[in-house]
Amino acid sequence: MFQETPFNELPMENLAKHAQGAPAACEAVTASAGTAPSTTDLHRPRDLWYARAKAVIPWGVSSNFRYWGERETLVVQRGEGAYIWDVDGKRYIDYRLGFGPIILGHAYPEVVQAVARAIQDGVTFAMTNVYEVQAAERLCRMAGVDMVRFVNSGTEATMHAIRVARAHTGRERIVKFEGCYHGSHDHVMWSTASAPLGALGSRRSPIPVPSSSGIPSVLRDKVITLPYNDFEMLERTVRDRGHEIAAIIVEPMMGNMAGLMPVKGWLTFIRQLCDEHGIVMILDEVKTGFRIAPGGAQQFFGVQADLVTYAKAMGNGFPVGALAGKREFMMTIEPGAVGVGGTYCGNVVSVVACDATLRVMEREPVFETISQRGMRLMAGIHGILDRHGIPHVIAGVPAMFGVIVGTDADAALPRDYRSVLRYANDDLSHRINWALIHSGIMVDPDYQEPWFLCYALSDADVDETLEKFEDAVRAVLRS
Ligand SMILES: Cc1ncc(COP(=O)(O)O)c(C=O)c1O
Q: What's the pLDDT score for residue 38?
């Protein structure tokens, strides 16, 4: 099904190293280096634009995750390749990449031109169009799935996947894992990375914690939340309640928890339990799909789910998502009986962007290039933190990895949401990340969001990043 590639030879374990005899480096951090900007020049374009934004957009952002604080929330002007520029004209090497979608580079000419050409002939027909067919054929070939339905976001993809799974099984409950994020609909906003440790209950009987006010409490009864990578808890739950469970939805690696990896056998264990109990396995590849390998996590980890959800990298930043999978499960969708759809599903902008993005991936060494640069970056960051005596874990894969700075050199290495929260030194991470942002390296201030790499990132960019990373660590430890 998949072409032979070197991707499954990449390191699958988290790169972890406890610094020996780590000094009280972390405690030494008290003052200003790496803190958010403390002065506001009211004449800066950013401040003027942000004031205008706040007047008409709640908190000045179109998605809550983008709100970094009154003075810190950025206003962007443009992007090109591996860089973005803010409205003050400052350039950043971009490792957020819009929370992951930009896999080739910002404004990648071939994709932009394909979309610009196609939309001259119309955008939305709400009928099958030729671009959609071409994109679907390419996506199925690359991802190793039988069929696909295009949607416009990851949220739509997981929402539809869960409905299809419920329709397929005639059951209503779903299992999701603590710290995994599957979009902003009510059925999955439970025990995501915003849940406080104290609210989650015990490991043996976890409490689903809503991620927002406004989520109907009756839905709590429809979701079972479990710790990631916990074989015993999952087995016990499925053994006791398998007949009520429609789907297990899982991120193949914890793309919303610093890229923490599945321990060996975790995904195949889920596959096996789903088979034994007639449960639909939904692999949420919104972050990993077309990012960690041409065939995403299914190829990388060698597991085949029943339904797979994609978005982000499949369109290099254009708004597109997909629900895909095995024919038997996809054909549960039925006009008038099992609903999946929307006015903009399969619109020309999104499917042409998808087809052009995947075409570049099929033709050029996108994944090899990103892997090589990402490995250098991971190893470089690992070395710097080591040299400065800071306990840490570099989790994930080169295209998408997390830097978890630890509190304690003797702490057990994290393998799920609960243990990451216990392990991580939030304050030190935050200071380092802000120092990076100030120096023109755009990472998310929150360590839970992985670093993402794009094809346009050069070796020189990696060198610059490592230099600035070392400077940031030095400055933060000095302050
Ligand atoms: C794994 C995963 N699933 C689903 C989503 C939701 O995607 P979207 O933001 O496109 O709705 C996200 C978003 O970050 C995600 O990381």
A: 43
